[in-house]
Amino acid sequence: MAQASGTFNRSVLIVKSDTVNFDGSTYSASAATKAIPANAIFVGGAGIVVTVFEDGSTGAFTVAAGTLLPLKCIRVNSTTTTATLMNALYQV
């Protein structure tokens, strides 16, 4: 399984949302509709990032501009997230 180190070869601009995942799906615990998690998130503008993991749990991180978060997550929530210029990074 790919880790959040090394080279990434796909980037998706993150649009913060409380319901829509990076791949355009909505969260479901059903294996048939699980979103594809990013390998990391690049944060261009400082602030708080609230991430959603594959199991629906969340994490809140205060980050500086230019931070690479090595997190396997499926969404960045709009509520409480103040960081900007974020990209979901993948190793495909």
Describe the structure.
With 92 residues, the chain is mainly beta. It is 0% helix and 40% strand. It has no helices and seven strands. It has strands at residues 10-13, 40-45, 47-53, 58-63, 67-69, 73-76, 84-90. The strands form two sheets. The protein has a four-stranded antiparallel beta sheet with strand order 1-7-2-5, with no helix packed on it. Strands 4-3-6 form a three-stranded antiparallel beta sheet, with no helix packed on it. The chain is globular and about 35 Å long. It starts with 9 loop residues before the first strand and ends with a strand. 24% of the residues are buried. The mean pLDDT is 88.
Index terms:
mainly beta; three-stranded antiparallel β-sheet; 92 residues
- The residue ranges in which pLDDT falls below 50 over 5 or more consecutive positions are none
The percent range for helix content is under 10%
Largest sheet: 4 strands, antiparallel
**N- to C-terminal distance:** 10 Å
Helix/strand order: EEEEEEE
Average pLDDT over all residues? 88
Shape: globular
| Largest sheet: spatial strand order | 1-7-2-5
Structural class: mainly beta
So how many helices? 0
Number of strands: 7
The proportion of strand residues reads 35-45%
Radius of gyration: 12 Å
